[in-house]
Amino acid sequence: MADRILVPYDGSPRATDALELAFDEFPEATVIALYVIEVPNGRWAQIVGPELQLPVTERAQEYADDVLESATEIATERGRGLETNVVTGEPDHRIVAQAEGESVDLIVIGSHSQERLSRILLGSIAERVARRSPVPVLIAR
C-alpha cells in the first residue's frame, strides 16, 4: 500500500481528477501536491543538475501558490491534509526527482483522455514520468 503519494498538480481538470483519485483510493496516505514552474529550454543550457532551482518571478511564484491553494481547498473539502511544494525546471525531470527526494511510494498523474490523440498527449509529461520513475505511476484518465 502507498503511504506517500506525489501528485503533480497544475489546476487542470485532469490534475484535479488525479488528486481526487489519490484521496479516494488511498485514504490513509500522505499526499503531496507538486507544482512545477516550467523553465524555457534555452535557460537549461546555463545550468547543470536537476536539483538546481532557478530564480522565478514573483508573479510565477504567486500563480503557483494560487494553484496549490486550490489543491488545498480540495483536500479540506474531503477532510484531508495536503503537503505542497513548488519547484522549477523541466516538469518530467522535476517530478521524478521530487519522487526520489520525498521517498514517495506512488505518483498519481493526470493525462488527457482523447483516444486518437492519447499517445501523442500521453507522450508528453505523463509518459515520460512513467518511463523514468523509480516508483509505480498511476495515470488518471
UniProtKB/TrEMBL annotation:
It comes from the Archaea. It holds the Pfam family Usp. Residues 1-141 form the UspA domain. Belongs to the universal stress protein A family. PANTHER family: STRESS RESPONSE PROTEIN NHAX, UNIVERSAL STRESS PROTEIN. This is Universal stress protein. The lineage of its organism: Archaea, Methanobacteriati, Methanobacteriota, Stenosarchaea group, Halobacteria.
